[in-house]
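Its record is retained below.
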Amino acid sequence: MEMKAKDVTEAARAIAVLCDGAIVAAQHGRDPSFARTARVIAEGYVRQIEAR
């Protein structure tokens, strides 16, 4: 899939930061649901980019 983002590097960085944050939060809180939440947010972000 080709992203329609103006800056694909920045879009990839945003998703990486989201994933990293979810990992840290899950480890700190011992709650794996952070991964599911991060996935929902990332999917919404990608849909928003695709809609442009």
Summary: The chain has a mean pLDDT of 91. Residues 8-29 form the longest helix (22 residues). The two ends are 15 Å apart (CA to CA). The CA atoms of residues 6 and 35 lie 27 Å apart.
